Amino acid sequence: MGPAVSAGSVALEAVTKRYGSEAVVAGVSLAIPEGEFFTLLGPSGSGKTTTLSMLAGFVVPDEGRVVMGGRDMTRVPPRGRGLGMVFQNYAIFPHLNVAENVAFPLTVRGAPKPEVTARVAEALAMVKLTGFEARYARQLSGGQQQRVALARAIVAHPKVVLMDEPLGALDKNLRYHMQVEIKEIQRRLGMTVIYVTHDQEEALTMSDRIAIMDRGRIAQLGPPREVYEKPDDSFVAAFLGEANLLRARRDGEVVRGPGGAVLATSAGTPPGGEALLFVRPEKVSVAAGLAEVLPNHLPGRVLHASFLGNIVRYAVEAGDGATVLCDAANGAGAVLHQPGDAVTLSWRAEDSRLLAG
Ligand code: ADP
Ligand code: MG
């Protein structure tokens, strides 16, 4: 016997899907262990839904394999894959009430009535819709409909649940509430969740690991903190929140930034010549006048100060036309710098990276 393969593990092996001559998913490989919350994150059109559709069985890849629980599922139709699904356009059935909607995955396969009743009650309790059994879609808010779809996806206790932008239509508060709910249910049932979103904050808060997609390929894959703090390229850096990407040059052993300043950086060492120096706005401190607070420092002049309540975001002109964004916490005794003020920007070498230009 070979090594045991967990039923909830999922893999894509060099999967490609073309429409016409264009590969909208181009040689994607992924290995997702059972119980992981895995997110595909990327801009619109980057191939997230197509990738998820190949996992679901709605789309058959032109090349490569889809493997679930160690079994080749590449050509198995959706109903043979035993997955739960919440797709943006996979709405709840208008002619069925809430209980019938949630029961659907069980009734289609002829589950015994007592089991159906018990499972539906359990799933509705998990999404906090007990008491809504007899309602129809038109009698529910958008958030409640989304929760019905979620209950339907988990009612059969699938090992793997696929979700494509399930919270896309909800307002911010409800979205946050549902994020917490989904995580809680996932933990309780030990499900593998493969989640698609274009919302970077949602991806960062919910995921064990994130794959950032760019034009049909995985640009980077790792835990939230790693992809946020150690982007491999400027696309990932700019897609995940705000990033300063300053023109820099490697000159032998030293890196020179705006105004020729010598800057120390951590890993990320593209070949010599033109490069981009990456540092997040919240890692840059701003001090009045000439102050050498941290090893890397640049003199600058405040262009804008935007008061955002808990933080103040500064745009600082720092030589050679470079604008550096810095977020300063509006903590106790915080000094507000004004447009026109001379300041010194500084950051730690380990908070910056040199990326290919
Ligand atoms: P995402 O979910 O990241 O927004 P999609 O996977 O939906 O991206 O689409 C990726 C690319 O593939 C887009 O350019 C889209 O227009 C194209 N595409 C998706 N489905 C089809 C299809 N059935 N026929 C032709 N092109 C498609
Ligand atoms: Mg999509």
UniProtKB/TrEMBL annotation:
Q: Which residues form the ABC transporter domain?
A: 10-240
* InterPro entries, per database record: AAA+_ATPase, ABC_SmlMolc_Importer, ABC_transporter-like_ATP-bd, ABC_transporter-like_CS, Mo/tungstate-bd_C_term_dom, P-loop_NTPase, PotA-like, Transp-assoc_OB_typ2
Q: What is its EC number?
A: 7.6.2.11
**A Gene Ontology molecular-function term?**
ATP binding
What's the domain of life for this entry?
A: Bacteria
Kindly state which reaction or reactions the protein catalyses: ATP + H2O + polyamine-[polyamine-binding protein]Side 1 = ADP + phosphate + polyamineSide 2 + [polyamine-binding protein]Side 1
UniProtKB keywords: ATP-binding, Cell membrane, Membrane, Nucleotide-binding, Translocase, Transport
Q: What does this protein do?
A: Part of the ABC transporter complex PotABCD involved in spermidine/putrescine import. Responsible for energy coupling to the transport system.
Q: Which family does it belong to?
A: Belongs to the ABC transporter superfamily. Spermidine/putrescine importer (TC 3.A.1.11.1) family.
Please describe the quaternary structure of this protein: The complex is composed of two ATP-binding proteins (PotA), two transmembrane proteins (PotB and PotC) and a solute-binding protein (PotD).
Entry-linked PANTHER family: SPERMIDINE/PUTRESCINE IMPORT ATP-BINDING PROTEIN POTA (PTHR42781), SPERMIDINE_PUTRESCINE IMPORT ATP-BINDING PROTEIN POTA (PTHR42781:SF4)
For this entry, the protein name equals Spermidine/putrescine import ATP-binding protein PotA
What species does this protein belong to?
Plastoroseomonas hellenica
Q: Which gene encodes it?
A: potA
